Amino acid sequence: MTGPHSHSHAHAADGAPRRRLAIAFGITAGVMVVQFIGAALTGSLALLMDAAHMLTDAGGLFVALLAASLATRPTTSRRTWGYGRAEILAATAQAAVLLAVGLFVLIEGIERLVVPAQVPSTELLAFGILGLLGSAASIVVLATSRSTNMNLRAAFLEVVYDALGSVAVIVAAVVIATTGWTGADAVAAILIGALILPRALMLLRETVEVLLESTPRGLDLDSVRAHILDLDRVRDVHDLHASTIATGLPVLTAHVVVDDACFADGSTPALLDELQACVALHFHVSVQHSTFQLEPASHADHEDARHA
């Protein structure tokens, strides 16, 4: 049984985040092309890795833009949650690619430390500054939308780390110019890889938890069960499940055993209101989409033992 929901999904249809993603994608893609040209001209591994990172981020921003567009499509009888899960799939793909790029960067950087190459510091500095300016522009564009959903947060983090990668390139150029030590280029490349790996792993873990339909972070099901059992006329709770469809959209279902008299005296609607208010108001994660099956105690004889 479910009650009426006033929860709005207007945030999904907001076009502002999509416009910002489109602008950030254009900036990142343009700077990426310039950095690849710079890497070819200078032979810099750090610049090549920063360009490869930007290639990954440009692809991630494009997928994020695509996912944001899909998420605005209405629900259908076949896709009852619409395309809300598209943002999770996009963020998972971004994390997986970032992880692969990070490992590649580390391996190549270690090899370059062993066999350093000559890198012109002036050109490296110029391309590093250009990359930093482009990343800074993308950060400004995405900053106000970064908390909208997981997909936009992933995109924002990517451009932030693009900026840090460009800083590493600039520092390497300065070190090469002042000391002549070309190994600084490899060190910068390794640092960029070290920036990529932790966030890729963290993002991958978060998105996989959603895909595995793990309980939303911040929602303690033991506490939920205890609150429900404290309600008058509730005897038991079973088949209690909670998961996340998309950012800001946790769902919860449960079978609630109540006094048989509830079905005779007409008190089930009021009890249902209490149950939905319980999960919507009492916990750090507010569950606006909840479904409760109210059962008399005698119904236990018809339940599958596996779901007890």
Helix percentage: 55-70%
Q: How many structurally independent domains?
A: 2
Order of helices and strands: HHHHHHHHEEHHE
Would you state the CATH class of the largest domain? Answer: Mainly Alpha
Going by CATH, the homologous superfamily of the largest domain would be Cation efflux protein transmembrane domain
Counted beta strands: 3
Nearest-integer average pLDDT:
81
Number of helices: 10
Proportion of residues in β-strands? 5-15%
What would you note in describing this structure?
With 308 residues, the protein is mainly α. It has two domains: 10-211, Alpha-lytic protease prodomain-like (Up-down Bundle); 221-307, Alpha-Beta Plaits (2-Layer Sandwich). The chain has ten helices and three strands; from the N terminus they run ααααααααββααβ. Strands 1-2-3 form a three-stranded mixed β-sheet. Residues 1-13 have low confidence and may be disordered.
Give the topology:
Elements: H1 10-13, H2 15-42, H3 45-70, H4 86-114, H5 121-142, H6 150-179, H7 183-211, H8 221-229, E1 234-246, E2 249-258, H9 262-265, H10 268-281, E3 289-296
Parallel strand pairs: 2-3
Antiparallel strand pairs: 1-2
Helix pairs in contact: 2-3, 2-5, 3-4, 3-6, 3-7, 4-6, 4-7, 5-6, 6-7
